[in-house]
Amino acid sequence: FYFRNKHRPFLLFVSLLHVHTPLITTEKFQGRSRHGLYGDNVEEMDWMVGMLLDVIEKEGLKNNTLIYFASDHGGFLEARKGNAQLGGWNGIYKGGKGMGGWEGGIRVPGIVRWPGVLPAGTVINELTSLMDIFPTVVDLAGGAVPKDRIIDGHTLLPLLQRKVLDSRHEFMFHYCGVFLHAVRWHQKDSGTIWKAHYTTPVFQPEASGACFGRGICPCFGDGVTHHDPPLLFDLSQDPSEKNPLSVHTDPL
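C-alpha cells predicted for ARSD Arylsulfatase:
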C-alpha cells in the first residue's frame, strides 16, 4: 500500500481487533505480559502500531502524514480468570466498555502525531469525538463536508493547531447501542461541564463498578436503572462521577 501511494495523498484506516474479546493473540506474544492474555493482546497491538509508524518514517512520510490513534470505548473491565481481574483499567473514571454513559466507558485519549505541523508534547483537554474524523479528513484533503445534511462532527485541525482553544462540541449525547444513556453540556460561559444520566447499568456486585455477573453490562432491560429525575454531575469538579448533585441542596 505505502509503496503504491507514497508519492500521492492516501488514507489508511486500520481497525484493530485488539483489545477485544476473544483476545486473539499470536503465539509470539502469548505470555509476554504479567497481566494475562489481555496484557498480551495490548503488547501485540503496541507492536503492530509500531510497525506502521516505522514504515511511515522509513518512507520519508513522517512530516506530511497526520496519524490519529484512538479507541471506540474505554477499557474492558470484566475480563477475568477465577478471582483475578485481567481486563483494562480506566483510572479515576467510573465504568468501562459497554457502558454508554459513565466516563470510563466513553472517555478515551486521542493521540495525534504530525511532526513539523503540530507541536510535540501538547495536551489538549477539550472534548472531541470519533465523529470528528470524517470532517477532519475532508479538511485535510481540501474538500468541504456535505451541506445537504447535518454533520455531527467538526474538523480537529483548528483545535490541534491551537488556532482555537475550545471544542465546538457544546452538547454530546452518549448512547449505549441505540439507547440514550446520558447527555453532556459544556457550559461555555462558565467552563462547567454538566452531565445528566438517564439510564445506568446495574453493577454486579453492586460496588464493583462493572458487570462481572453478566460478563458485560447491558444497554436495556432488567440490567439497567432508569433515573427520573436524571442523575446530575458537575464533571469539572467531580470527574469520577461519585457525587450526584441534588436540586434541593446544590446550587446549579
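The chain is about 15% helix and 20% strand.
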